[in-house]
Amino acid sequence: FTPPEPFADITIMYFTALAALMVILVASYQAPNNAVEVSSLKPNPSRLLPPLPMPFRVPLDPRGELQLAWNVSYTNQEIYMELRVAELRHGVVLGMSDRGELTNADLLVLWDSGTQSYFGDAWSDSKGHVSLDSQQDYDLIEAKQKAEGYYLLFKRPFSTCDPRDYVIEEGTVHIIYGFLDKPLASLEKLNLSEIRTGVQRVLMLRPDTPPPTLPPDVQMLDVVAPNVSMPNQETTYWCYIHNLPENLPKNHIVMYESVITPGNEAIVHHIEVFECSPDIPAVPGYSGSCDDKMKPKKLNFCRHVLAAWAMGAEAFYYPPDAGLAMGGPGSSRFLRLEVHYHNPLLISGRRDSSGIRLYYTPSLRRYDAGIMELGLVYTPVMAIPPKQHTFYLSGYCTSKCTQTALPSGGIYVFASQLHTHLAGRGVRTILVRGGKELEVVQEDQHFSTHYQVGDRRGDVLITKCTYNTEDRSEPTVGGFGIMEEMCVNYIHYYPRTQLELCKSHVDQGYLQKYFSFINRFHGNDQCVCGEVSVTEQFSQLEWDEFTGEVLDSLFNTAPISMHCNQSTASLFPVSPQSRTHTPATIDCQATN
């Protein structure tokens, strides 16, 4: 029997389609091209392992479910990384992008198809869709379940020559992460916008130099929170008064480092230790919120910075010729510890005893070192419009302040620490002398002879911060909250002066004129300028391109209010003034 020709054609089409369907179904359950099947990974004795232990580590998420540790081989231009997953479900995503975006990111993905687990180098497109990379540059060394969790050990070069890969360079690296809660039949079905994700900022490339040797008579002092119960709110600044021994002779702090309670590494955002004014004979004990209106007023006279640490920073060493004075005549025996907790998941019941460990010696060095705070005053009068790809704010330490406060021989700056909050994209400080600009700020927080600059009377120091608020619909004002912004540079220098803080903000009278003008421009004749808070005035504006451009012009041209503060919290006699220089571009990355 020979079927009619049309029927034969239909039969052939049917079986062809069925065969194609079978190929697709089989392919969907086969190992993805280039990906590593984790269960088939065999130990390779010839593979070079990194020196253990991993010297650098950081928690990635507030609950401590992910921890990244790494080691750097400058010889091979490679980074060895170890990712610990406390409880592995169906996979995990780790990656890097320019500013922590989920789009156009360089990724590695561990996922299971329901029957097998795979590891692969991947990338995300402009919509967050994930694809396996044709060039696999993450080399999986080991995958193992241990008592503390599931461990992935892998490596990759600094630069891979793959246009889809992130180039690991000096400065802040934005690490993104995500959790897979269900199997993936195909990696191409993954979209990062549909899973639980987060971002962490780290300095991956650290100086390839051994730490300085501490003197043999060095002693340690821990200034830590007294086992406090962290409030279940997003932002908390906790203050605690620590008493030094009575009649402590003068010592030099030669190093300090953070002491973080295990499990709280992703919540403790930054820490500062202040010495109280020696003019205050006694400071009452206190442990509580720094914002509490009932806290002792004498805490406001504890302004002299002894140590400052932010998430991701390493131990800080002083140069051989200088140390930070502690104890002795003219000092206070009262220290104020300030810990910033960032608790976005509103975790409750967590106890904390984090703080700073000071290393000090009675063998005094040639110079007393000091720390000076540059940038913008923590005030809502400095704000960033919403939906901004790039917006700049600048803080000034003017010539009038340095002329008044610095010694005739000037000071020697040997290190700096930069700080913004989440919208910050970069910080730079420039030194202006005789109308010429000299670079001051470097990202290395360790002393180095390559990064030293003298600062003299009459110099101008300008700290300029870059922000991005494309993901925000409301203005971002200056302040202490994590969703508010800061622009800070702590410079370390010697010899020490009484100048503790040299910062500015726009003149508030001119800001009120701005509010009045913008409201009238948009037809709002009932201006409430001055009747409500500055934060509320910013939020009530109609934000369009014109409103943002006028604000940018105001910040760049209006007179400024100068804060030229002594360590006693009193002001040097510097009046509001106009800026005298417009900064050029010398970029450094911010630490968040």
In short:
Helix content is 11%, strand content 38%.
Describe what this molecule looks like in 3D.
This protein is mainly β. It folds into 3 domains: 36-42 and 49-203, Immunoglobulin-like, CATH 2.60.40.1210; 210-365, Copper type II, ascorbate-dependent monooxygenase, N-terminal domain (Jelly Rolls, Sandwich); 368-587, Jelly Rolls, CATH 2.60.120. It is 11% helix and 38% strand. Strands 1, 5, 6, 7, 8, 11 and 12 form a 7-stranded antiparallel sheet that branches. Strands 13, 16, 20, 21, 24 and 25 form a 6-stranded mixed sheet that branches. The longest helix has 24 residues, at 5-28. It starts with a helix and ends in a 26-residue tail after the last strand.
Give the key terms.
single chain; Jelly Rolls; 3 domains; 5 helices; disordered C terminus; signal-anchor; Dopamine beta-hydroxylase
Strand content: 35-45%
- Which range best describes the helical content: under 10%, 10-25%, 25-40%, 40-55%, 55-70% or over 70%? 10-25%
Largest sheet data: 7 strands, antiparallel
Oligomer: single chain
Give the count of structural domains.
3
Terminal-residue CA separation: 80 Å
Top CATH class of the largest domain: Mainly Beta
Query: What's the CATH topology name of the largest domain?
Result: Jelly Rolls
Number of strands: 37
Helix tally?
5
Mean pLDDT: 83
Radius of gyration: 28 Å
Low-confidence stretches: 23-30, 442-453, 580-592
Would you identify the CATH architecture of the largest domain? Sandwich
Shape: globular
